[in-house]
From TrEMBL, chains A, B, C, D, E, F:
InterPro entries: Hexapep, LbH_SAT, Ser_AcTrfase_N_sf, Serine_acetyltransferase, Trimer_LpxA-like_sf. Belongs to the transferase hexapeptide repeat family. This is serine O-acetyltransferase. Keywords: Acyltransferase, Amino-acid biosynthesis, Transferase. It catalyses: L-serine + acetyl-CoA = O-acetyl-L-serine + CoA. Pfam families: Hexapep (PF00132). Residues 301-320 are annotated as: Disordered. Residues 308-320 have a biased composition (Low complexity). The gene is epsC. It comes from the Bacteria. Its EC number is 2.3.1.30. Signal peptide: none annotated.
Length: 320, 320, 320, 320, 320, 320
């Protein structure tokens, strides 16, 4: 007698897969996996971090006098690995079309080549982000500490790489790279978002920045800030309309404190300061300071019981 | 002379452990570890992901024509590994009782067998979740992208597996599996929560769903939504009462936008829409739209200084 | 013909690095990496977890009768590894000074020795945290479950270790250890924060606790609570003033529910209860119960459309 | 100043590589490695061992009731990995020719398909080898011990797989597989050698069996036996003639004891027994017993010194 | 169409396994693997090496002042792992009998306990072996070099551990440990062989020492020496008789040079010296020096050809 | 009750270590390991193989157009790792002397620098070895196959690296590197041996070449050949005299067939051919052909029994 009814479950799972494939109108064709792989992209990004910052994020035994050897070798390896993933994305997208593999591969190569040439610019932008964090946080001890420790900087390394891929027609690779940072930091920046230099996200957990957001230079943002869409228009057929500008424009030198929610295609004018937890669905002029309108709490008479013993009216938001 | 006073510290740590054991009334008995292991469950879940979605989350070199071989082998291995962990949980719970090991092991086997037979249903539910994400997000390029990238889908894979184990009397295994997803996504769903098909969590960081929550079909939830308890009743002896229904009931096709907080055993009626950051402790009728009652901010005169230079009255919520 | 223009990109990247080094006034000197390593500290912390809780977080095959052998061996290894990192931090800080390496190394040794002798106290504090979680959460099945599963406990293990290093003059090591917990739990506690015994963070995602916060005993905190700074004073030269007390003081037995934001050097008196989502920038007397001042929502007429079909006025905060 | 003159050495090494490529008349063309990989083949063979003997050489957690699932999955993976290596060998061989890649790949596929269909026969032959070892060695405790421990059996697993590949036109893959066994056991069997069922090599270190050797059924061989070539004929141009039959034919049930050397295209008749250290360059009739012709030593008067103290005339063969 | 006919091959392989099981009269019963595992024993031996020589073969970061902590922890882990393997061997042996698992496990425990108490004696013997190598080899620079580099010492570590297990009724574990050394060194010592202190094997490749060999103290042996059996007696039924003394007795201070072959239950008297390549099947008195009886070569007239060009009568033993 | 008496055994082992240290007159001083590490050198050699043959033994994803980047990076890493090991050897040797660490480190650096500059020459020599194997073996299909598969080539890569280190005063590192090859191939070449270009070892198992051997150019050697010492002179005090020339000189273009044993400081003249199994302790003129003096076997009447059934007079050398 077998311990588990493995064969029956295997058959049932095959049945569910079959239903899914029919629902998705997919033929059951022999062959291997045709999707980009999260693990492969994670490794590409790890390598590119070392390429961009060899003495700080590269291999621990690297020495300054041989930086260029390392950078060249690692860059070449990372680009070829990225090229393989780019081919997978483009072939996957073209899987229903009569597209020529050679032509797809040429497009993949062109995209990765263009990406590779943007790396020096990306490094420059990231340097400005690191400096912005160092200058904006009284607790920062050095620029190196910022690069090593700050989740906001990690998220921006991923974003600036992902954004290039997004621009170059590889949105799935871009999205995977963004989600790797999201998992590591709790910061969720859509690769489509356009972000100027010297951008600083402090603490970061819960930050969400949408696909069509445009952020200027020297902007500062704290944890749990949302730059979101206000509504999702649908077309006559009831389908979501894609690609419409629907997220905020944030001009240079704006500061947005923790928990603020800015929704829709509004503009925060240059130098505006948005206070913590502010809820905002309209534009704000340059230099404005937006704060909570009213004090939002009520103090009641002291409770004499210990909080641990049956406070009958405590308002809890714990999900316990 | 030794570099560190290791022996003294070892003795002192033994003293603290001894105090703890006395406090917990635990005998110091020889023997190995008697608790389920996070690493082992992580591997079980990784394998089950491949069992459920072989061509997308299984081994990269898998080919469609041998899916069933892989599924059968991986399933058998995962179930036996899960069985070992289930025994540990049940034995641990019975450690103070005079329970027969044979009987405990039989219960573990029955639970894992029942779990295994639910896998096809779980796969079907997860397919509905993937479709819901694809249909609900204008940025989603394909169902495969959704399965590969979306943290909300990852959290639901863990939840739907964990919920079965919770139902089958293995709440500690269930909790570990949920926390694995919490760590990876920032989405904290208690394995006790009952969630219908086609559930979509977008962005997800900060979502908390409590143990007795009941969620219908085709519900959509955004980041930082809490479905929590309002208060924790205690019994006459001052101990927390366990197991009482204390979290919201969310009916079919409800949408809850980011940051909304719903507390207590309230009901959100079918098709209700809860706006962002809403704070809600009472029930809502079907079809209601709940939004912020008032605009919550105050615009003051533009500040002409750069934000980086001593804005004397900026309200910061950064913890820096 | 080469596939990628690797040499050109290598040169361009070298140019950007050169600019950075000039900007930072760093000489290009041969040599290896001079910064502490995140991976090395992650391993130190993993080992110390086993040292503190050998039968629950130590190696799976450990047996109780040989706990002390394991603890002694692992402790010695962890302390030497930590010593190496401490030297790196102190040498890095002194890199512009004419400091003697021997003297720096002696300081590193003294710091790690002092750290090692605090471990029994740390274990005692962590035991109190575990008990607090068990007593404060109706869903907790056992103290062992709490230690294995609760992200709040994981964050406190890291914090209590990091706080000692911070106190002993190793703030960079401390920060890296804190960020390791932040990445794993979404809980961001600055290593400078002083936290009394029996501290319980439930759920935890999005919690931020600032550098100069002081928290008493038996305090309870839920997800997304911020104990932050209200403003960042700058000195005459426009630089941020460092080290000023700028975060809240939380007295014994306070409870702060999810999403509450407490800013500035205010005091929450003993036993105060702060309701969910409260925004607070002033002190609160002992025993006070602070709740939302008003109901914050508006119920409108039921919408008859399916939420999925073009609700023209839904207020969305999703960034999709 | 740099520590090592890395750039100069890099240039010098490039110069030597350039000389080699000129000597070998190889163009310097961009591109990746074009040779089969030892590591990849090692993994293929490891997997095939599990396919052939699932419960004894397969994964430790395999269970008998799901053997077929494992065998199917592992076999499919191993065959595809082998196919990739087969393509590399065939393309490498055709690198100077105008061969079509498609045609080469078809040949690789045909070869691996044919190989795959021989696996049941190979398993049967290996069973006979295991039984031969068990029956021929008084120290063997069980057939399972033989399969787990005996280097001669390991060498035959590799040989029987390698010989099929050799026969199917993949001699380089075959050779790599043979050398993997040679490294592990000290037994060097050329993949071209034809070996009948129930072959037993005891101890094995130093055994060498040449490319054109033909060995019958139920043959037994001990350590350091050579079945070699007597001379290497050269053609008119002075080049070695390849492929000529130049190694012994060993008929059924022959036994060859340790250290015996048999050279040239001689025949050892059925049932012959060749004594230890015999040197043989001519054929032997069926049933013959060949032993040392004479006693080969000379006893001299006892030496009274300890061997450790300057025995002036000891004949040493140590290389110390 | 599938690439390979995997299902057919899976069925055919199942057929061959079925034949084997019938031949071996094994029932097809569900269940996991029931044999000791080579990998597990390799890890046990690696750990025991560190236990025996902590500062030289233990973990690289070990420090002398905490040796005992390491030794205790590693010893406990290794003994429990060994106990698990011992149970497997004893249960396997008893698989056809009606033996009680409890009783078998008690025997396994007794054996491993007895083994553990022999470790200090084993360390002492190995120290004598190391010194013997240092004193016997003019090329040895230090005792530490000997322990780190000499394959003969590695083989003796394995042998002295394996011999204890053999004596304690665990011959299969012993054999696996011996074969691990055989694979690494080319030295094949049966775990049954009894070997006195200060034994030195130089170079070692090809050494074979049989099960019933008895070797005294301060014996030295060079590469390719065989201490073998002369014949294998069979009983009336034609089966090999097991356990008979059939290998040489080598008394104290004997030296045996490279390639010598000593066969049968002969005795080499104290202090005898056996020359290289000697073939010996009879006893030798104490102090005797045995050398080659005659010069074994014939010098012919110089050949004027290059050896690479068709020397028509070269006697080759290469298998090429 | 504990399972094993770990504490007692730990104490007993400490006692044996104490005896050893007293015997060796070593003080018990705190501190870490002071010996070079086999694993570290294994990694250095693996990296240097890639440096020497980047496209064939380097990383599988390397591409020809970025060879130099890889070579530079890998070389720098390998040299620094080797430098660390060189310091360990030199400090270890000087551990009883009053030597200045700075001076020792300078010597280590000088040695590794000199080593690094020999790498191009070593590559050239290895190319000649590869060609010699290809030209000398009728079974060799290509020079690439030779580099990938032939154990003799692997042994020579190790030897040529080790020999440089030996010459530069690092004999312990050299010995470890040689033993790594010995373990992998069964070929034991002392790093002191001087070997000219185009050296070919076929099959190789059992080859032993001693410390003071001198081998010319274009020499060929088969398996189990020994170039050893004839006797070990001792000085007046009875100690082995070290460093005396005691192994053969082999002139250009000599061929030595399998199993031949050449002992002592004899000279094999240019172009000599030594037959298989020849035993030689005197010099041989240029061009001589040395073969077995006599046929060494005796054919007896055929035996009619099966070899498996009690052949009463079979001469076995198996150790079974």
């Amino acid at each position: 007698m077998t311990v588990f009814h493995v064969s029956e479950i295997v058959d049932a799972l095959q049945g569910v897969r079959q239903q899914w494939r029919e629902l998705q109108r997919r033929a059951l064709e022999p062959g291997g996996r045709d999707l980009p792989a999260r693990e492969a992209l994670a490794e590409v990004v790890e390598t590119l971090k070392g390429v961009l910052f060899p003495m700080r994020l590269g291999p621990p035994d690297l020495r300054q006098e041989s930086e260029n050897f390392y950078v060249g070798h690692a860059l070449d390896a990372a680009l070829h690995a990225l090229l393989a993933q780019a081919r997978l994305e483009l072939r996957y997208k073209a899987r229903h079309a009569e597209t020529d593999h050679g032509e797809i591969d040429a497009r993949a190569l062109a995209a990765v080549r263009a990406f590779s040439q943007r790396l020096p610019v990306i490094r420059g932008l990231l340097d400005s982000d690191v400096l912005a964090a160092f200058n904006g946080d009284p607790a920062a001890g050095s620029v190196d500490e910022v690069l090593l420790c700050y989740p906001g900087v990690l998220a921006m390394i991923h974003h600036r790489l992902a954004h290039e891929l997004y621009r170059l027609g590889l949105p799935l690779l871009a999205r995977i790279i963004s989600e790797l940072a999201h998992a590591a930091t709790g910061i969720d920046i859509h690769p489509g978002a356009q972000i100027g230099s010297a951008f600083f996200i402090d603490h970061g957990t819960g930050v969400v920045i949408g696909e069509t957001a445009i952020i200027g230079e020297r902007v500062r943002v704290y944890q749990a800030v949302t730059l979101g869409a206000k509504r999702f228009p649908r077309d006559a057929a009831g389908n979501l309309e894609k690609g419409l500008p629907r997220h905020p424009i944030v001009e240079d030198e704006v500061v947005i404190y923790a928990g603020a929610t800015i929704l829709g295609r509004v503009t925060l004018g240059r130098g505006a300061v948005i206070g913590g937890n502010v809820w905002l669905t309209e534009s704000v002029p340059a230099g404005a300071h937006i704060t909570q309108a009213i004090s939002r709490h009520e103090v009641r008479a002291p409770a004499h019981e210990r909080p641990g013993t049956a406070a009958p009216d405590a308002i809890a938001t714990g999900a316990a």
